[in-house]
Amino acid sequence: MSRLDRYHLLARATIGSEYHADGRARLLRFLPDAQSQLVLHAYGLVCRSDGSELAVLGEERDLQRLWADRRPATLNFSLCCDDPAHLLYREAAALPALSLALFEGEHADFTAWLRSPSRQQHLQLAARRTIWKYLLLGDWSGQQPELHDPLGLVQFEAATPLALGDGRSALAIRSGSALPLAERAVPRFQLRDANAHPPRLLMARLPVAAPGGLQREPDGTPVSEIFVSR
Question: What ranges does the record give for the region Disordered, renumbered to this chain (predicted)?
Answer without folding.
Answer: 211-230
